[in-house]
Design a protein that fits this description.
There is one protein chain. The protein has 144 residues and is α+β, with helices and mostly antiparallel strands. The chain has one domain: Beta Polymerase, domain 2 (2-Layer Sandwich), CATH 3.30.460.10. 38% of the residues lie in helices and 20% in strands. A five-stranded mixed β-sheet has the order 1-2-5-4-3. α1 (5-20) packs across α2. Interacts with ribosomal protein uL14 (rplN).
Length: 144
Amino acid sequence: MTATQNTIDTVRIAAAAADRLKASDIEAYDVSDLLAITEIMLVATAANERQALAVAQEIEKDVYLNCGKLQPRSREGLSEGQWVLLDYGDFIVHVMHQDAREFYRLGRLWRDCPTIDLQLEHPEHSGASDAEAATDADSVAVED
């Protein structure tokens, strides 16, 4: 079983909202084979609590406006801003303060799951590692 195209499209809207507010390390994992409760986990990093709350709010707004007034089933972490979780059922959004992201390392839980191409406007904010980015830069330089 894989994530539905509709869910992928909605997650891309959420990721674009996070990207627009300069969240970093934006990654999405297709966890549908691993978990029965959801299809996709979207994770984004914020530099501080204020940014985490702003990113979560922007995601909610964009998903609501662009996806048939879809709202999260539940929200957690809004009072602290360290780790904001938005549960939309088919996908779950984690907006994490940089320290919390480094401590909990959620990506290691889903490292064997397929990642989703988020088609971000600012791919430098995506979850590509520095080593991958350096390799990509080297290959571009060679091609020129």
